[in-house]
Amino acid sequence: MEIGTFYFKKGNYDAAIDRFEEATRYEPNLAKPWRLLAEAYEKKHDSGRAIESYKKYLEVFPGVADVAQIKKRIATLEEKRAREASKRTTH
User: Fold this and answer.
1) In Å, what is the CA distance from 40 to each residue of 11, 33, 68, 90?
2) Is pLDDT above 80 for 30?
3) What is the reported pLDDT for 66?
4) Distance between CA atoms of residues 42 and 80, nearest Å
């Protein structure tokens, strides 16, 4: 987690994603790696994986204090993904 956070802060999102994914494999029931993984995917403009990771974060820790904020983030990303998909089909 520490190394992933270091890479995230440095803007090396690919390396951060690798570390956070590793953390989710070893400790799938910890919420923090899922949240950080979602944020890293979001920085990489990978809405699909960000949504999946945010949903897993809420699944692992449904009573989290920021549940409303995370659900809003998911909705925003889903809208963005839908807009991007419609742009691809109309061009």
Assistant:
1) 9, 10, 20, 29
2) yes
3) 93
4) 11
Give CA separation, 12 vs 19, 23, 40, in Å.
11, 17, 9
Question: CB under 8 Å to 39, separation ≥6 — which residues?
Answer: 8, 50
Residue 19's φ and ψ, nearest 5 degrees, are: -70, -40
Give the CA distances from residue 42 to residues 30, 49, 50, 76, in Å, rounded to whole numbers and listed in that order: 20, 8, 5, 11
The answer for residues whose C-beta is within 8 angstroms of residue 90's C-beta and 6 or more apart is: none
- The full 3-state SS of 29-46, as one line of letters, equals CCHHHHHHHHHHHHHCCC
* Residues in CB range of 73: below 8 A, 6 or more apart: 42, 54
Alpha-carbon Rg for the chain, nearest whole angstrom, is 14
Tokens of 16: 């951060």
- pTM of the full structure: 0.90
